[in-house]
Structure formats: structure tokens, C-alpha cells
Amino acid sequence: MTARATSATGLPPAARAGGFVLLALALVVVLALSITVGARPIALSDIWNAVTAFDPAQTNHKIILDLRLPRTLVGLLVGAALGLSGAILQGATRNPLADPGILGINAGATLCVVLGISVFGITQLSGYVWLAFLGAGAAMLVVYLVASLGREGATPVKLALAGAAVTAALTSVTSAILITNVQTLDQIRFWQVGALTGRTTDILLQVAPFILAGIVLALLTSRILDGLALGDDVARGLGLKVQRGRAMVGLAAVILAGAATAAAGPIAFVGLTVPHLARAFTGPNYRWILPYSMLLAPILLLGADIVGRIIVPPGELQVGIVTAALGAPFFIALVRRRKLAEL
Known about the structure:
Elements: H1 3-6, H2 13-36, H3 44-52, H4 59-93, H5 105-120, H6 125-148, H7 156-180, H8 182-192, H9 201-219, H10 222-228, H11 232-237, H12 242-264, H13 270-282, H14 286-310, H15 319-338
Helix pairs in contact: 2-4, 2-14, 3-4, 4-9, 4-10, 4-12, 4-13, 4-14, 5-6, 5-7, 5-8, 6-7, 6-12, 7-8, 9-12, 13-14, 13-15, 14-15
């Protein structure tokens, strides 16, 4: 059965297009709420005035441009990156539980940040970005090289096993450093939980080129993912170069998940749950799954960030805590309902 034949599941094509438009409108609403909702409520009219006629004497204008707008745009990019990276990792490995954490991306980023703090004394969040991106890419490379050993190459099972092994090794090293260095633990705690708070324009400008490039590359892999979904042998019979295609998908995942983790820390469940939610509407066709995931994920992430601001006033819960609290029961219910075994 081909990907085109199985695409009959999910919404009809016309309804998918309409659903995509509705998601885009919902994302616009969430973006507006992300800027206006907080400890200090801001009117929608202030957003336009702050952008077109900024007045440094106006407190609301400063809050919008210095705090709310960068935070919202980082959330938009990070959400899109996590949603797409989760979707393409699940497609490439044919593993319904795959997310950026399964291939060591989060663990590699965390270890590199910990080493930067403890060894090089880096304390600024802008410095964490490059360390986390370097660690994420290096960890993914190690996982792929380990999984590529042998005649079969980097099969889905070997990728998952290699990712689990590398993640365990990196996590143990990170834990050992943090246990013996309380100062490093204090500095990394805020980043490690996953947060959008304090994300400035500098961080946005650092990660935006990587995430935008990763989005373009990910959207170009839809044909590869549709082929891999049929199994490696069938994909080869259709003329797909499996190892080259899987390497291209892996590169897109590293760029997206690495940059997202670098900007906001390791955020759980977004990359895991969103592709399944998208697949429920679109069916197995990745030409639809990827765009849907790209919109659904920032809606979820920014929505969780908004909930975190209003649930415990005057303080706030970091978005990584909220996504874990919302995502875990949702995913359990999804698995029980759909009885997912493989993609």
C-alpha cells in the first residue's frame, strides 16, 4: 500500500486545507495573547503603537519590544522547530515514541552547557546558545555513527538503541558534574527546566537563522519520509537512497532541535505529542503532517507559556513544567485510544 493510498485516512484534502487555515488563524490569536497577557495586561492597540511609533517613555512600549515580543517570537520559532523535529524523527525512525530526546540531542546540549559553566565560567544565556547547539549536533553525530556500524547501516531500531545509550551516558556525566559543583547547578537550573522567560532579541537573532533554515530543509523531506514509512526495502525499490535520505532528515532534526534546545532549554512532550495530533487530522501523508506540526506546536507551546503566567500569580510557572503537565496525560490517552505500535 502506497503513501498516497493510505492518505485517505484523516480529513479529506479540502478539509485539511481548511484546517490548516484555521490553525494559522489560531496561531495569530495565540501570538496576540502571548504579548498582551501577563502580570501587566497590555491592550492590543499598544502592540501596533509600540512597533510603528515606539515611545521610550511609555512603559507598555518598552515591555512589548524588550520582553513580550522577543519572548513570543522565540516561542513561535522554538515551537515550530520542536514540532517539525519530532515529526521527522518519528518518520525517519518509524518509532512513535521518537522525539528530540531519543537521539541524545537534549542530553548533548545539556552536557555542553554544564561544561561551559563549570569549566569556562560562562554565565550569560546568550553564551549557552552556542554551547547547547554544539552539544546537540555532536551528540546526534555520535548516535548516527554508532548506529551506522554494520552492514545494515543506521536502521530505525539501531538509531533508537544508540540514542538511548548515548543519552544515558551523557546524562550520567552531566549528573556527576552537577552533584560535585553546586554553583553550576544553581546557574543551569533555570535553563534546564525549559523556559521562554528572559529570552531577548539577541537570543532570537542568534537562533532564528538556524531554525528558519531547518524549517525549509524539514519541509523538503516530506517525500523522503513518505518513502521511509513504507519500509527500507520498498523505499529502495522506489528509487530512494535510504541512507542519504535518513542522513538529510537527521541533519534537519539536529538543526531544529539543537537550536530550539539552545534557545529555550530541553522542553518535553511538544515534539512527542504534536506529530500524533497532526497525524490524527492529516493521515500518514507527510506533506500534510509537517505543515500541521509546524503550526500546532507553537500553539501548544505559547498556550502553555500563557497558562504558566496566569496560574500562579504574581509569579509564573516555566513553560517546560506546563508542557510536561499537559503533555503526559494527553499522550497517555492518545496511546490508549490509538494503540500505537509503529508508524
